[in-house]
Fold this sequence. Notes:
- There is one protein chain.
- Helices cover about 55% and strands about 0% of the residues.
- By secondary structure, it is an all-alpha fold.
- It is built from four helices and no strands.
Amino acid sequence: MSPTDIEREIKDFLIANFLFGRAEALRDSESLLGTVIDSTGTLELVAFLQERFAITVEDEDVVPENLDSVKNVVAYVLRKSGAKA
């Protein structure tokens, strides 16, 4: 799966589940935490990533560096899945 495909799927999930279809409210580099998703939303995002991309998100991986923006989430999925950017 290409980075573009991963990004599209993550954005689609966030827009459908947290932004009620308002795609314009989502920016690639802006923080998701506290603006788009809360702590429960973080758990939902983690569950989605694990199910959709067949990766295991370890407890120590649930940090802003991995999940704070669309850009960071895509990079994290790429690292965990061994995909090439």
